[in-house]
C-alpha cells in the first residue's frame, strides 16, 4: 500500500512577482494554508507560503536577504495572512510592507529577542 | 454614533481555562470590532525542536497542546518520516488512525462540556466530562497516559496494542453510544440551548472560505473540507471516510458537526479494528535527517500543518507547526463583529480555541 | 487522602501560565463527577477576590508574570498557592525555551508543588488538601498576631481604621493595573479616533 502520498509541490518565487503570483492563486480558488519563516544561514532567510486547492498542497518558496529585503504584505489578497506576517515579523524580524493589520511588533509580546532574529 | 468603549476580555477569564486576550470595541452592548492579541503562552517550542534531536523532539511537539497531543506527535513523526523517506508498517498506520480518532472523541466531548459551561448549563458540562473519563481510561490502558501519550516515534509506534485490547476498546465505545446520545440530544433539542446557539455567530460559506477557516468551523458552514479525504495520513481511504458537513453556519451547526463526528469516530474505530492487519509496528530509521517534507493532518479542531527540514544531522533545521486555532482566529474576529457582549464567551468557544496550540 | 484539614469550604482560582493545556484540563477534570472535588466543598471560581487557593499551571514568562502577580495580590489573606505540573514547579520540558522564565516560584511564593506531566487529578486534589493545612496554619498565625482574618466580625475593628486602610491601599497599589489605556494597542486607539 502506498503510504507517503502527500505531494511535495515547492516552487521558487521572486520577491518582485510575489504579489502577482499570489493574486493568480487566489483567482484560481486557492486557500491560504500557512506562511512560515526558515533561517537558512546568517544572511538568507526563506519564507514558505502554502496554499491548498481541492486538498492539494502547493508551496511558494521566497528567498530573501535579511535586513536588506522587505516583503510586500499579502494581506490585501488574503486578509487572514496578518496572523502569519505579524508572527514572522515578531519572531524572525522580517519586515512586511503595506499590511492591512499591522500590530507593529506587539502581536507576540516577547521581552527577549528570539534566537531566530538576525544578529546585529 | 454611540460612545465607543474598549472592554478587555481575558487573559484570566472564567469561561476559558487558557489565556487569550481580546480588546473588544463596544458601542453600547454591541461589539464593533475585536482585536486579538496573543503571546501569554508563547514558549518558543519551534526553536526548542531545533535544539533537541529529532527523536526527542516528538516529546516536545506532543506538549504543544495537551488536548490534541496524539495528533501533534503523529504530525511531527509523519513529516520526519517523509523527510527520511521511511515507509511505516501498515499496522502502525492503523493504530495511529485508531488513537487519533479516539483523541477526537475525547476532544469533542471536552469541547461540548466547555460549551455547556459557556452557556451556563453546569450539569451538562459535568455529564460530558464524566463520559470523557471513560475515553481517557481507554487511552491510559493502551498508551499509559491520560494527556500526553508519547506512543508515536519516527518510524512507527513505540509499542503495539493487542487485538484483544482493540476489541475491548470497540465494545466500550459502543457501550458509550447511548450515553453520548442522551447528552448530545440535550444540545440539539433543548429549547434553552437552542436559544443560545441557533442563529448566533453565523459564518456564511463564502466568508468561511474567504477567511481560510478550517475544521468544524468551516464544515459547519457547508464546505466539504477535511484533510482526512486526502489520504496523506492514516487509513481513512480504506475506511471509506466522508466528512460531516452542516449548512447553517451558526454555533449550532458547528456543534452538530462535532456531535456527528463523535459517532463517526466510533464507527471509524470499529471499522479499523475489524480490518487491522497483524505485523510489526515500527521500522528502523536513519540517524540523520536530510531533505524536507510538508504534511497536513486533520486534528479535532481542523487542519494542522507540519513542515520538517533536515540539515544532514540528527538535529532539524526547522520544525514548523501551524495549528488549526491559529487560522480560525480571523473567523472568530469576523464572528465577534456585531455580536452582543453577552455572546462573546460562546463565540470564542465556538471555534474550539486552543491557545497553547496557537502560540506554541 | 486525609480530609481532616478540611474544616472550611475553600474556593480555588485557576490561572494557566505558559502550559501545554494538559494540566489545565486535568484541573477541570478534578471538578467533574469522576474526581469531584466539590465533595470537599472546593469550588472553582473565576474571581481572585473570592478565592483561598490559587492553582497555577505552566511556567511563567515576561508577559504573564504581571498577571500571575496581580491575581495573587488580589486574593484575600490567608491564601495558598499550588503549582500544578512540572512546568509550574520548574519549567519542566520548556525550561530551555527562550520565552520561559521557569517555575511559578520565580514570581510568587508557592506552598505546594505537584509534579507530573501532566499532573494527575488525584495528585492535584491531594495537593489542594495539603495546601489547606498550610492555609489553616496561616490563619492561626494571623489570629495569633492579632490580625483579623477575613471571617472575623467587623464590629471589633474600628470603622475609621478600616476605611483608612482601604485608602492607604488605594494610594499605593501593589501592582499597577495591566490594561492601562496607554498600553492598549495602537490599532485600537486608531479605531477610536475614527
Number of domains of chain B: 1
The top level CATH class name of chain B: Mainly Alpha
Average residue-wise pLDDT of chain A = 80
- List low-pLDDT spans of chain B: none
- In CATH terms, the superfamily of chain A is NADH:ubiquinone oxidoreductase Nqo5 subunit
Give the biggest sheet of chain A. Answer: 4 strands, mixed
Q: Which blocks of ≥5 consecutive residues of chain A have pLDDT under 50?
A: none
Order of helices and strands of chain A: EHEEEEHE
Which topology of chain B does CATH recognise? Cytochrome-c3 Hydrogenase, chain B
Helix percentage range of chain A: 10-25%
For this structure, the quaternary state is heterotrimer
Tell me the distance between the termini of chain B: 40 Å
Largest sheet of chain B: 3 strands, antiparallel
Number of strands of chain B: 8
Main structural class of chain A: alpha/beta
The top-level CATH class of chain A is Alpha Beta
Report the average pLDDT across residues of chain B: 85
Percentage of β-strand residues of chain B: 5-15%
Distance between the termini of chain A: 51 Å
What does this structure look like?
The complex is a heterotrimer of chains A (120), B (360) and C (194). Chain A is α/β, with parallel strands linked by helices. Chain A contains two helices and six strands. The model of chain A has no long low-confidence stretch (mean pLDDT 80). Chain B contains 13 helices and eight strands. In chain B, α4 packs antiparallel against α5, α4 packs antiparallel against α10 (251-275) and α4 (90-118) packs antiparallel against α12. Chain B is of the alpha+beta class and 360 residues long. Chain B has a single domain, classed as Cytochrome-c3 Hydrogenase, chain B. In chain B, the strands form three sheets. Chain B has a three-stranded antiparallel beta sheet. A three-stranded antiparallel beta sheet of chain B has the order 6-7-8. Chain C has six helices and five strands, in the order βαββαβαβααα. In chain C, α3 (86-90) links the parallel β4 and β5 (112-114). Chain C starts with 10 loop residues before the first strand and ends with a helix. Chains in contact: A-B, A-C, B-C. The interface between B and C is large, with 48 and 48 residues.
Amino acid at each position: 500500500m502506498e503510504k507517503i502520498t502527500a505531494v511535495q509541490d515547492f516552487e521558487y518565487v521572486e520577491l518582485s512577482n510575489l504579489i502577482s503570483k499570489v493574486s493568480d492563486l487566489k483567482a484560481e480558488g486557492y486557500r491560504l494554508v500557512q506562511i512560515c519563516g526558515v533561517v537558512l544561514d546568517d544572511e538568507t532567510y526563506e519564507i514558505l507560503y502554502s496554499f491548498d486547492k481541492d486538498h492539494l498542497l502547493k508551496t511558494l518558496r521566497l528567498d530573501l536577504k535579511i535586513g536588506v529585503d522587505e516583503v510586500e504584505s499579502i494581506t490585501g489578497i488574503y486578509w487572514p495572512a496578518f496572523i502569519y506576517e505579524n508572527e514572522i515579523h515578531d519572531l524572525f524580524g522580517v519586515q512586511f510592507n503595506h499590511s492591512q493589520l499591522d500590530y507593529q511588533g506587539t502581536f507576540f509580546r516577547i521581552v527577549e529577542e528570539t534566537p531566530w532574529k538576525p544578529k546585529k | 454614533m454611540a460612545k465607543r468603549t474598549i472592554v478587555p476580555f481575558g487573559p484570566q477569564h472564567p469561561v476559558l481555562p487558557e489565556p487569550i486576550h481580546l480588546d473588544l470595541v463596544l458601542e453600547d452592548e454591541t461589539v464593533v470590532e475585536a482585536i486579538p492579541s496573543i503571546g501569554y503562552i508563547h514558549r518558543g517550542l519551534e526553536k526548542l525542536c531545533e535544539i533537541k534531536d529529532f527523536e526527542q523532539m516528538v516529546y516536545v511537539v506532543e506538549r504543544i497542546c495537551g488536548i490534541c497531543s496524539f495528533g501533534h506527535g503523529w504530525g511531527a513523526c509523519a513529516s520526519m518520516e517523509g523527510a527520511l523517506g521511511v515507509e511505516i508498517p501498515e499496522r502502525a498506520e492503523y493504530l495511529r488512525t485508531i488513537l487519533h480518532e479516539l483523541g477526537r472523541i475525547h476532544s469533542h466531548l471536552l469541547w461540548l462540556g466547555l460549551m455547556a459551561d459557556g452557556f451556563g448549563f453546569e450539569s451538562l458540562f459535568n455529564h460530558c466530562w464524566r463520559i470523557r473519563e471513560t475515553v481517557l481510561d481507554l487511552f491510559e490502558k493502551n498508551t499509559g497516559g491520560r494527556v500526553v501519550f508519547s506512543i508515536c516515534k519516527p518510524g512507527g509506534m513505540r509499542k503495539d496494542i493487542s487485538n484483544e485490547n482493540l476489541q475491548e476498546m470497540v465494545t466500550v465505545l459502543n457501550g458509550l453510544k447511548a450515553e453520548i446520545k442522551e447528552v448530545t440530544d440535550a444540545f440539539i433539542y433543548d429549547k434553552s440551548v437552542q436559544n443560545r446557539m441557533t442563529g448566533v455567530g453565523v459564518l456564511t460559506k463564502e466568508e468561511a472560505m474567504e477567511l481560510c477557516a478550517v475544521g468544524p468551523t468551516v464544515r459547519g458552514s457547508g464546505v466539504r473540507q477535511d484533510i482526512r479525504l486526502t489520504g496523506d495520513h492514516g487509513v481513512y481511504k480504506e475506511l471509506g471516510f466522508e466528512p460531516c458537513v452542516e449548512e447553517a453556519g451558526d454555533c449550532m451547526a458547528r456543534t452538530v458537526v462535532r456531535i456527528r463526528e463523535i459517532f463517526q469516530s466510533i464507527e471509524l474505530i470499529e471499522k479499523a479494528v475489524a480490518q487491522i492487519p497483524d505485523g510489526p509496528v515500527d521500522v528502523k530509521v536513519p540517524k540523520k535527517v536530510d531533505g524536507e517534507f510538508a504534511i497536513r493532518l486533520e486534528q479535532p479542531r481542523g487542519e494542522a500543518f507540519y513542515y520538517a527540514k533536515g540539515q544532514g544531522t540528527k538535529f532539524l533545521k526547522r520544525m514548523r507547526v501551524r495549528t488549526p486555532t491559529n487560522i480560525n482566529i480571523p473567523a472568530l474576529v469576523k464572528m465577534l463583529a456585531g455580536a452582543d457582549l453577552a455572546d462573546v464567551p460562546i463565540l470564542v468557544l465556538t471555534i474550539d480555541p486552543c491557545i497553547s496550540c496557537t502560540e506554541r | 487522602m486525609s480530609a481532616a484539614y478540611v474544616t472550611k469550604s475553600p474556593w480555588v482560582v485557576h490561572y494557566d501560565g505558559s502550559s501545554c493545556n494538559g494540566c489545565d484540563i486535568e484541573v477541570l477534570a478534578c471538578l467533574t463527577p469522576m474526581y469531584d472535588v466539590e465533595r470537599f466543598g472546593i469550588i472553582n471560581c473565576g474571581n481572585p477576590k473570592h478565592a483561598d487557593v490559587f492553582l497555577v499551571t505552566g511556567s511563567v514568562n515576561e508577559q504573564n508574570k504581571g498577571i500571575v502577580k496581580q491575581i495573587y495580590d488580589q486574593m484575600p489573606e490567608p491564601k495558598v498557592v499550588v503549582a500544578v505540573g512540572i512546568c509550574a514547579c520548574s519549567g519542566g520540558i520548556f525550561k530551555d525555551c527562550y520565552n520561559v522564565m521557569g517555575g511559578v516560584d520565580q514570581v510568587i511564593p508557592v506552598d505546594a508543588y505537584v509534579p507530573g506531566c501532566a499532573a494527575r487529578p488525584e495528585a492535584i486534589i491531594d495537593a489542594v488538601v495539603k495546601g489547606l493545612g498550610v492555609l489553616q496554619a496561616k490563619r492561626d498565625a494571623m489570629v495569633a498576631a492579632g490580625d483579623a482574618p477575613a471571617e472575623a466580625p467587623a464590629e471589633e475593628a474600628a470603622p475609621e481604621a478600616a476605611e483608612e486602610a482601604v485608602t492607604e491601599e488605594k494610594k499605593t497599589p501593589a501592582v499597577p493595573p495591566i490594561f492601562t489605556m496607554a498600553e492598549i494597542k495602537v490599532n485600537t486607539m486608531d479605531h477610536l479616533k475614527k
